[in-house]
Amino acid sequence: MGSVAKHHFYIEDALLRPAVHHQSFEKLWETKWKTPCQMGIYPFMFGSIVDFEPVARAIIDKGLKEPYDWDEYAQMFSPKAQELARIAEEAERLGQKDKACEYYLRSSAVYRIARFPAPRSQQQRLAWKAGKEVFYKGAALMEHPIKEVLIPHAHRVDGEGDVIPVNFLVPPSASAASPCPLLIIFTGLDGYRTELAVWQRGWLDKGVATVVVEIPGTGDSPALASDPKSPDRQWSSVLDWVATQHEVDVQKVVVWGFSTGGYYSLRVAHTHASRLLASVSLGGGAHHMFDAAWLRRVNALEYPFDLADTLAHKFGYADLDTFVGEAGKFSLLDDGTLDGRAGCCRVLLVNGNDDEIFPIDDLFVALEHGAPKEARMVRGKKHMGEPDSFVVILQWIHALLGLDADIMHQLRLLPSKTRF
């Protein structure tokens, strides 16, 4: 059950203050989601406020609130997503490539929020499937098309899938004679490869190839969600495949894990240390994220929906109580990962001090065990410490790989800017 002794969290007082956005979808939209939607940033990557405003108003008028009927919730978004897809199809038929690309991606954004935070119901699973289809139609029309690659899961065990679907994008200048660095992006609890693709063009412009891959229990990851060692097998398969990509410099492979993906990037830094140049854990947990005292409180805090239940689903559990009782088996401290004899590759840990999704206490745990690591805490910020954390991480990776240090070019590419 995680730590045996009672742990006093860094944000202990905040754990007793429920967030207002849990009162209703109206509160969620008005206090948490409307502004990022207007800005075209997480979780509305590739989206437009013009598309979401009428859907949000319809949901508000219907009075939806927690606990949500996820089928009912998802169906509220489907008509708009389908409408945008039809506009894209017509534009593509007429040879209007840029318009078709934009509308396919806008459709994928609406489908994303329909299946958000995880496809737990039939309608949400349908939204995930449809969202992938329109995303890859749009991605194929980009100036530098993002391709889906099905990596053979060579290290699979019974019960795991045969392939690991990833996004793969390589700079045109890369070749076997002049291989480029590779950044492997580990996605999070709710942001999958169709979303974190938003980072890929910026890295291509810097001469860095990218792979975007989903963590166990999310998206299309074939790994057994409830097996703490399944990610080790998945990353072995991914890195074996990377070794066959001759335009990639296997001596310059960096991992960047976002949120829950940060937990996995910290783990892979230890389990596959010899195969990585470095690993970044942004907003990731390690140990106390699995404490019963934490999991019993986080449903009412920073996360838009029911975080603990979503985590239980992600880790392969049908109910929260069972997950809380067994979650300690995923601790990187209790399972010996952090103190392993093999040590770790170079590691950067970054998070906001006031994170209410994964406790900042886990950053301390990672620093207190095993090989020395680098870290930055962003004061006054919550989960992942955005946007300050992006500046810290981009500067660190640029210095590590000897890039041009012009990080603003990349940051300017993140917000979606609709033209049509």
Automatic annotation (TrEMBL):
Pfam families: FrsA-like (PF06500). Keywords: Hydrolase. It comes from the Eukaryota. Transmembrane segments: none annotated. This is Yellowish-green 1-like protein. PANTHER family: CONIDIAL PIGMENT BIOSYNTHESIS PROTEIN AYG1 (AFU_ORTHOLOGUE AFUA_2G17550), DIENELACTONE HYDROLASE DOMAIN-CONTAINING PROTEIN-RELATED. One of its GO terms (molecular function) is hydrolase activity.
